[in-house]
Amino acid sequence: MLLSLNGQTRAHSALFYRLRARRGAKTAIVAVAASMLTAIHVMLARGVAYRDLGADHFERTNKERLAARLMRTLKQLGYTVALTPMNPTGPVPC
């Protein structure tokens, strides 16, 4: 994994690894470069500093899609899965 100077993974690194798994390394590199150029353009046009979204940005933004992907993976491994929502105040005790 690509790490920053302080040892944390970055959003662009997470994007690369997500895309590489589905599209291949070359396409992922081009997509990450396009994402970086878009971020640079926004920073220059608006005059704002770069704010990294973090490596878990994609999981945080789309929980339903993450759940569906994980269910597909478990199904491919031979498991059946039924999702039930957690208690809003916290996890359900076992």
Q: How many structural domains can be distinguished in the coordinates? A: 1
Order of helices and strands: HHHH
Shape: flat
| Largest sheet data | none
Number of strand segments: 0
The N- and C-terminal alpha carbons lie at a distance of 35 Å
Uncertain segments are: 1-5
- Strand-residue proportion: under 5%
Describe the protein's topology:
Elements: H1 11-23, H2 25-46, H3 57-61, H4 63-76
Task: Please characterize this protein's 3D structure.
This protein has 94 residues and is mainly alpha-helical. It has one domain (11-76). Helices cover 57% and strands 0% of the residues. It has helices spanning 11-23, 25-46, 57-61, 63-76. Helix 1 runs antiparallel to helix 2 (25-46). The chain is flat, with a radius of gyration of 17 Å. The N and C termini lie far apart (35 Å).
At a glance:
With 94 residues, the chain is mainly alpha-helical.
Q: Can you tag this structure with a few keywords?
A:
single chain; about 90 residues; mainly alpha; 4 helices; about 55% helix; flat; disordered N terminus
